[in-house]
């Protein structure tokens, strides 16, 4: 489970050096009912000062971002698990080592997320600005117990108009399990003719602010995932296949929507304002290499736009970054008339000590009208040194019935290699045990477009034409990245009660 670190400051001032230091800022542990643990905290200061320590409950708003609230003072409250001093006096340049004692009750089960807020009692004034800094120490305790499962509930699933009457797909997602997990939602929008019109990845406030594809959900969190749909150009009945990845499992939820011009505005696709000659740059280079590339963007829309371009990390704090190796030349802000193009020059200079692996970044293009952004698009960049491993692993499979009783097959994959999967595709064959002719076979399509970076997950899905009778089956799954073979998985599953439910 990825660690989360939160530093909360009430007033930020870049010219001020904060004098307080707290370690660690995150602690997580698998524990058992009745277990007693000690959490070491180290607090130091550059000045003599008194700090207070307060235990708060970690909760999540509908945008997925955190909120800290006081625990209820009851007999069963988590507040009673913890013992630590409420105040500590710090001597300048000396560290205070504090032991936080936690006694887990025998009745506890699931994930409990708390925060110890470390806060100076005195406010200091610097150049007329009052500075007050608080440090939130995140504590995640996962209490093991038999029968615990990651589950979810879709409380709302709709296409609604935004302030400009453009369609937005929104899903209110409830983690109704006692466990925390990461979740991501993708969607395929199919038109009246049954063809896929568009694939979108739904974001939360948490995922968009951190630049990641998944959202961390604590127990009982209710979070809204949403994304604007840009390629619905005509009225009619559209079906949405919602691909839900929660923890190491996945489901497909389907729902149909009627799109009418009375309710929605259906303008030209905004992607027309920023069209690339190619979708990305991916180069195989050696240490000490220097390579220059051109990126061309064209305005195929009907109006002129103002464009800005910036070099950025592909994910926030991504370990294998190529930004320090990359120089961007050309105008970073320019106007682009309809039918006109502009080129950006990129120079990659690989250092002599570059290690084998894949390194990433992106160009972020933003088109604006009257100083109002209308669309941003990412142009992905990768440099591959040596021969990093290409690999993926099958986490789970699922077979269920859709809205119209069609059979939906899905496989959840994780990229456990060292390089991205740029053009993932797959095939499946389903056999009766002992037979060599499959009862079903076909192609799998990914739940979202774009690169699947190392450690990211993707759902591969297909609609089965026909009926799976109750019984045992063998699945042969093959996955490719373009023409390159990535993996093959052979696994058995069982269809129960002739309903489409499966067990792997």
Describe the protein in words.
- With about 500 residues, this protein is an all-beta fold.
- The chain folds into 4 domains: about 5-145, Immunoglobulin-like (Sandwich), CATH 2.60.40; about 155-260, Intracellular proteinase inhibitor BsuPI (Immunoglobulin-like, Sandwich), CATH 2.60.40.2360; about 270-385, Immunoglobulin-like (Sandwich); about 395-504, Immunoglobulins (Immunoglobulin-like, Sandwich), CATH 2.60.40.10.
- It has one helix spanning about 205-210, and strands at about 5-10, 20-25, 25-30, 35-45, 50-60, 65-70, 80-85, 85-90, 95-105, 110-120, 125, 130, 135-145, 155-160, 165-175, 180-190, 195-200, 215, 220-230, 235-245, 250-260, 275, 280-285, 290-300, 305-310, 325-330, 335, 340-350, 355-370, 370-385, 395-400, 405-415, 425-430, 440-445, 455-465, 470-480, 485-495, 500-504.
- The strands form 8 sheets. It has an 8-stranded antiparallel beta sheet with strand order 31-32-35-34-33-36-37-38, with no helix packed on it. Strands 1, 3, 5, 6, 8, 10 and 13 form a 7-stranded mixed beta sheet that branches. Strands 16, 17, 18, 20 and 21 form a 5-stranded antiparallel beta sheet that branches.
- The longest helix is centred in the middle third of the chain and has 6 residues, at about 205-210.
- The two termini are about 25 Å apart.
- Residues about 1-20 have low confidence and may be disordered.
- Keywords: Signal.
